[in-house]
Design brief:
alpha/beta, Rossmann fold, 38% helix, seven-stranded parallel beta sheet, globular, 382 residues
């Protein structure tokens, strides 16, 4: 297939590009380095040094023989989006090109405005490029389980059947995000559903949980092919933060009571989920929603798993509960469905102690680059 990846320089975008290229697909990637610039502006640089997208593409081709075609441009511009569609003529477009941080979106008005405009403008432009240039293209978007919030009922897979006064209908599952970033993802889903109904687009919306991990099959050839791994309070997901804290001997920062539950998945499973979606597109006029995670953990449970894995390689780790900078329920019911991707063939990569030790060993190689000032939360919702 011809694959166009929006946000191809990111933590998910770059491994996805290598994954599809290594399987013989024609891959184009577009990015404007927004996340790199935001990281610099907030003193939240990634742990591992990463070459730019053009240099990484050249290195990947040299080591693997597979080509990735990079385009540097701002997808908030419709001209850039249209040009990327024209060059790639994609069978599938994978949309990662959004400001991905909940804490960043809550820093203040300017950061909130950037998050809102960037995320919605890119989604809007992607939709219209598909309508005007390639209406048969399959749009795959990376949404988030955070859209659902933590309702006191089971979370269905995108849709819910409701009976009311003797009649029944099917609706998008009610959503209640806990940050502006997650709210933009809700708006993305609503935009997509409108245009699917109106223009019979083919869309898969993957409601993804927090992702952890570093190494994929394609990155084993060189550390320079590893993804942009953040460990700070703004761009680092909780497990990746814990791994770095464990390596440098800092307490694992558990927000509040630590009973917050979420669905997590390994980076390699993200790649497989996106591949399964691309290989089995929905029908025209269908918004297919699948919940993308493999295991549910509380924050405390994750911390304990990291503590045990660290002890296995001689690292003594403590957990420290700190005031929660976020506005969220710390005691809640959480039972989300997630059968769609397993029915397509996903075989979960579980969070074993061996897997945690493997990640800890990679982080250890770069422990001299850790900036302890980035460990404690710098952004508060309150």
């Amino acid at each position: 297939m011809r694959i166009l990846i929006l946000g191809g320089d990111g933590y998910l975008g770059w491994p996805t590009a290598m994954h599809f290229a290594a399987r013989g697909h024609e891959v184009w990637v577009v990015d404007n380095y927004l996340r790199r610039r935001m990281s610099l502006e907030t003193s939240s640089e990634a742990l591992l040094p990463s070459p730019n997208m053009q240099d990484r593409s050249a290195l990947f081709e040299k080591l693997s023989g597979f080509q990735i075609r990079p385009i540097v441009g701002d997808l908030r511009s419709y001209e850039v989006m249209n040009s990327a569609f024209e060059q790639a003529n994609p069978d599938a477009v994978i949309h990662y090109a959004e400001q991905p941080s909940a804490p960043y979106s809550m820093m203040g008005r300017d950061q909130a405005r950037l998050t809102l405009q960037n995320n919605l403008d890119v989604t809007f432009n992607c939709i219209w490029a598909a309508i005007e240039r390639n209406p048969g293209c399959h749009i795959i978007t990376l949404a988030t389980m955070g859209e659902y919030g933590t309702p006191n009922i089971d979370i269905e897979e995108g849709w819910i059947e409701i009976s009311h006064r003797g009649r029944a209908d099917r609706f998008l599952y009610p959503r209640a995000a806990g940050s502006l970033y997650h709210t933009t993802k809700i708006l993305d889903t609503d935009l997509l559903w409108f245009y699917v109904r109106t223009y019979a687009l083919q869309v898969t919306d993957l409601m993804q949980g927090p992702v952890y991990g570093l190494v994929t099959a394609e990155s084993q050839a060189s550390d320079q092919l590893l993804p942009n791994f953040h460990y700070d309070d703004i761009f680092g997901t909780v497990l990746n933060r814990f791994l770095v804290q464990a390596v440098v001997g800092a307490p694992l920062t558990v927000y509040g009571k630590g009973h917050q539950q979420r669905g997590y998945l390994n980076l390699v499973d993200t790649l497989r989920c996106v591949e399964l979606a691309a290989l089995t597109p929905p029908t025209a006029g269908e918004l297919r929603i699948m919940n993308q995670f493999t295991e549910v953990f509380s924050v405390l449970a994750l911390g304990e798993k990291v503590r045990e894995a660290a002890a296995d390689i001689g690292l003594e780790v403590k957990l420290e509960k700190i005031p929660n900078p976020r506005k969220e329920k710390e005691e809640h019911y959480y039972n989300p469905a997630h059968t769609g991707l397993t029915e397509l063939g996903l075989k979960p990569t579980l969070l074993t102690q061996d897997r945690l030790v493997e990640m800890l060993r990679v982080v250890l190689r770069y422990s001299d680059r850790v900036d302890r000032r980035k460990i404690m939360p710098r952004v508060s919702w309150r």
